[in-house]
Design brief:
- It contains 8 helices and 7 strands, in the order αααβαβαββαβαβαβ.
- The protein has 200 residues and is of the alpha/beta class.
- Helix 1 packs parallel to helix 5 and helix 4 runs parallel beside helix 5.
- The chain is globular and about 40 Å long.
- The longest helix is centred in the first third of the chain and has 17 residues.
Amino acid sequence: MTSVTERMKEIWDAEAAAFDEQPDHGLRDPSVRAAWSDLLLPLMPVCPASVVDLGCGTGSLAVLLAQAGYAVDGVDLSSRMLAVAEEKAEAAGVSVELREGDAANPPCSPGAYDVVLARHVLWAMPDPAAALGKWVGLLKPGGRLVLVEGRWFTGAGISADECERLARARREDATVTPLNDPALWGAPIKDERYLLVSRR
């Protein structure tokens, strides 16, 4: 690992214990969980399609999709995040293949997945364009790219316009939908959050 990657691992390992306290991270509130289910499940192919959740964190979305019948792999740099994800999958009675690795260069086979999913990950990549190229390479022909991203009031993040530009450099189409519904986040938001879907 590079020193930058090692530092990022340390940061996310330190966040693991309290990560799920955010409503959209832990999905502990049934209404927040239902909102994410209602958002994501209609975007998925017919079960049992294969999904990789890159930067899966504590595995909330990976477990949600596994419970819906999808074959889900989760990748995260943080071993502590993955330990929480493993406990969560076991508690839910589902199988999620969890792998420790850098989302910028996932330890996954090219052309293996029907869906590549990433939530609030692309913005944190040192080279978002290169990372997105790797992600697209994981898709089977006709596979779907599903990104949840944002540009926050702090100035961090990636704008919808920039995210769409990066996606269209690799894919034929990209559709952006604002995610302003407070039900997704557990409270009203004032910054830019959105969904990008590319089906080809």
